[in-house]
Write a structure and sequence with these properties.
By secondary structure, the chain is of the alpha/beta class. The strands form 2 sheets. A 6-stranded mixed β-sheet has the order 4-3-2-5-6-7, sandwiched between helices. A 3-stranded antiparallel β-sheet has the order 1-9-8. The radius of gyration is 16 Å and the shape is globular. Helices cover about 25% and strands about 35% of the residues. The two termini are about 15 Å apart. The chain has one domain: Rossmann fold (3-Layer(aba) Sandwich), CATH 3.40.50. β3 and β4 form a beta hairpin. α2 crosses α3. The structure holds inosinic acid and magnesium ion. Inosinic acid (IMP) binds next to β5 and α4.
């Protein structure tokens, strides 16, 4: 898919499903909750690239206690718009997590396969504690047993774009979450 002009770009945005303001309010609430729970404890926010970079940037600024940030890149192989379950870690954390309370920061849990793989890997490294926070959750699509500890928005089975989430690498820069118009009507 090539998106070569503003017109192409706009034509695939079907409708906004979560506004900038709704995202902002939800993140403020969760930022407070995390600040209260983790105050005085060494904790690491682990962002799973690329999709969670926008969420992480806003979430960490809603946290008012000391925290550290790490990045990992997990590449899920797709057939169409569905992940195949084959996951590869193409960038790993640069530190030992056994002295940290770890919070994985994810953009969306769909089938759950990508996160399951990353979660098992990180748990095997014995962090002090382990939690998952996701911006979006599509529980109706889950094929394996995985639950986020904190989920900001539960959405139906739409393919969504924006606020870090892409379709073929485009649309990560939208400030809101929108439904993707597969047919470009
Ligand atoms: P899962 O392994 O099926 O849970 O898929 C996880 C990854 O697929 C997410 O981290 C996203 O990168 C991508 N993904 C799943 N659903 C969507 C969507 O609706 N829009 C954009 N990316 C998605
Ligand atoms: Mg992702």
């Amino acid at each position: 898919m090539g998106v070569n002009s503003a017109e192409d770009f706009q034509s695939k945005i079907k409708r906004v499903i979560i506004t900038e303001q709704q995202i902002k309010e939800a993140i403020e609430k969760v930022g407070k909750q995390i600040s209260d729970s983790y105050d005085g404890r060494p904790f690491l926010l682990v962002s799973i690239l690329k999709g969670s970079f926008v969420f992480l940037a806003d979430l960490c600024r809603a946290i008012t206690v000391p925290c550290e940030i790490g990045f990992m890149r997990a590449k899920s192989y797709f057939s169409g718009t569905v992940s195949s379950g084959n996951v590869e870690i193409t960038m790993d954390l640069d530190r030992d997590i056994s002295k940290y309370h770890v919070i994985i920061v994810e953009d969306i849990i769909d089938t759950g396969r990508t996160l399951k793989y990353v979660a098992e890997l990180l748990k095997s490294r014995n962090p002090l504690s382990f939690k998952i926070i996701t911006l979006l959750d599509k529980p109706s699509r889950r094929t394996i047993d995985l639950k986020a500890d904190i989920s900001l928005f539960t959405i139906p089975d739409y393919f969504v774009i924006g606020y870090g989430l892409d379709c073929a690498e485009y649309y990560r820069n939208l400030p809101y979450i929108a439904e993707y118009n597969e047919r470009g009507e």
